[in-house]
Write a structure and sequence with these properties.
480 residues; mainly beta; five-stranded mixed beta sheet; 2 helices
Length: 480
């Protein structure tokens, strides 16, 4: 078999093995919490995964679309990222393609990204590793899926080899070369793997607004190969995290050796309560100078301290037996995280009321509520039954109003306020009916008043006329 045919056979065998690995990965993933939806085609896909999905490639950009489904409820969506094997002829530009994917109306988490391809890429099949992180509330789930991408618009795989065309190959091997082994023996070089070994925050949530020391180590998992010229880069899209360091350099890591990536981290007070993925990018070389790259993603949970208050609750000073009085109040969520199943109730001897349920409240929300309080007697138990007929029935009552709410894990926080009131004996009120005095018709008084007023006007007119005549007579006398 000549060299060119041998190369093609090896390439076909490699493609077959990769296809088998891909099918095995899908089968294993189906048994996990997260799996790829293989039977349906979504926007941006020519075919479903079951029909042999292949991403669309246009102008050196590959448009990747991967639908995920889950078998349980996921909090805050999925965190999906892409990593590559650094190969000599890899067609991909190595960048951070990690993003958060929310649940769509169709019940699927649709991951979409655009991956830049090299212009001088070589045809062939190349693996993509999809790292998926999910938070269920009880644990953080991490799964990896392998997808093989076939490049067909690049350079031919063997076009740079200096092999003669098939029609120029000799029909037989020269006699002087008979008996010689013409097969080229190529030394296989396996990539050393870097993996996170210890992570102090794997199962320990951190509170927003706090600083802490993060113990983290990574390991060269190869038992035979050492790595050299190793650079580790920390990548995080969360702006509420403040890292002491984001890059490390190690000149040499022995086979099975570890590297310490521990550091101090601070979390802003306004950080959202969610699972935070942090990626570590490893770039290194082996003894022969072959360059490799790999990525590891770790995740830890940020918790917000829940803060809520019961305000404006004012118990009446006293109740009469059998009274029913409404008591208003308000609940305020003063924190930055959601509170769940908010409830208000009272506990007091002789007083009874149903529990007020306010439900879930977003950060910054407030809700008004009301308790309808019924007053019994002091000799009643919690069910309203009289325990002792001869016991005291009325008097002072000291009680408490209790406000409770839960976090995402169902842990309950309880607040209470004390109050003092009294239950009094009901008053007997006599009903008195007052007779209305008969009103007399006094129209004649009005007539007399008008007549008197008219008389006064006549008298005034006569006096004025008399004074006028007196003045005229005096003036006439003085002239004569």
């Amino acid at each position: 078999m000549n060299r060119k045919r041998k190369k093609r056979s090896l390439f076909a065998a490699a493609v077959f093995c990769m296809a088998v690995l891909f099918l095995t990965d899908l089968k294993a993933g189906a048994e996990e919490l997260i799996h790829i939806e293989s039977n349906k085609k979504y926007k941006g896909m020519h075919t479903s995964f079951a029909e042999g999905y292949s991403p669309v490639i246009k102008k050196n950009i590959m448009y990747l679309v991967v639908p995920f489904r889950t078998k349980a409820k996921i909090l805050n969506g999925l965190q999906v990222g892409v990593s590559f094997e650094r190969e000599e002829n890899s067609p991909f530009y190595y960048r951070n393609y990690q993003k958060k994917v929310n649940l769509s109306r169709g019940g699927v988490y649709l991951y979409r990204c655009r991956i830049k391809l090299k212009k001088n890429r070589m045809n062939g099949q190349y693996p993509l590793y999809l790292e998926v992180l999910a938070e269920t509330g009880e644990e953080t789930v991490r799964q990896q899926f392998t997808i093989y991408i076939e490049i067909t618009d690049g350079r031919a795989a063997f076009q740079n080899e200096n092999y003669p065309p098939e029609d120029e190959l000799p029909e037989s091997v020269p006699k002087e070369q008979e008996g010689e082994n013409n097969e080229e023996k190529e030394e296989v070089s396996h990539q050393p793997r870097m993996m996170v070994e210890t992570n102090s925050l794997q199962k320990t949530p951190v509170l927003a607004g706090e600083s802490f020391f993060w113990t983290l180590t990574a390991k060269n998992c190869s038992t035979a190969q050492e790595t050299e010229n190793l650079k580790v880069t920390l990548i995080s899209e969360n702006r509420d995290l403040i890292f002491e360091k984001t890059a490390w350099y190690f000149e040499r890591i022995a086979a099975g050796g570890t590297m310490d990536l521990s550091q101090n981290i601070a979390v802003e007070k306004t950080a959202a309560a969610e699972a935070v993925p942090v990626q570590f990018q490893f770039d290194y070389e082996d003894k022969k100078g072959n360059a490799y790259s790999s990525a590891e993603t770790v995740v830890f949970s940020i918790k917000q301290t829940q803060r809520a208050e019961l305000v404006n609750f004012s118990m009446p000073e006293s109740f009469f037996e059998s009274d029913i009085k409404p008591v208003a109040f308000q609940v305020q969520n003063t924190g930055l995280s959601v509170i769940y199943n908010a409830k208000v109730r009272i506990e007091a001897k002789g007083l009874f009321s149903k529990e007020a349920f306010l439900g879930n409240m977003e950060a910054g929300d407030s809700k008004d509520g009301e308790l309808e309080i019924f007053a019994g007697t002091l000799n009643m138990d919690a069910q309203g039954e009289i325990t002792d007929e001869n016991a005291e029935k009325y008097g002072s009552v000291s009680g408490r109003v209790i406000f409770t709410y839960e976090n995402e894990q169902g842990e309950t926080t309880e607040q209470e306020q004390a109050f003092l009131t009294a239950i009094q004996k009901p008053e007997i009120v006599e009903l008195k009916i007052e007779r209305e005095e008969q009103k007399t018709n006094q129209w004649w008084i009005t007539v007399l008043a008008l007549a008197f007023l008219l008389l006064m006007l006549v008298i005034a007119g006569l006096l004025l006329r008399l004074n006028y005549y007196r003045r005229m007579r005096r003036e006439t006398y003085e002239k004569t």
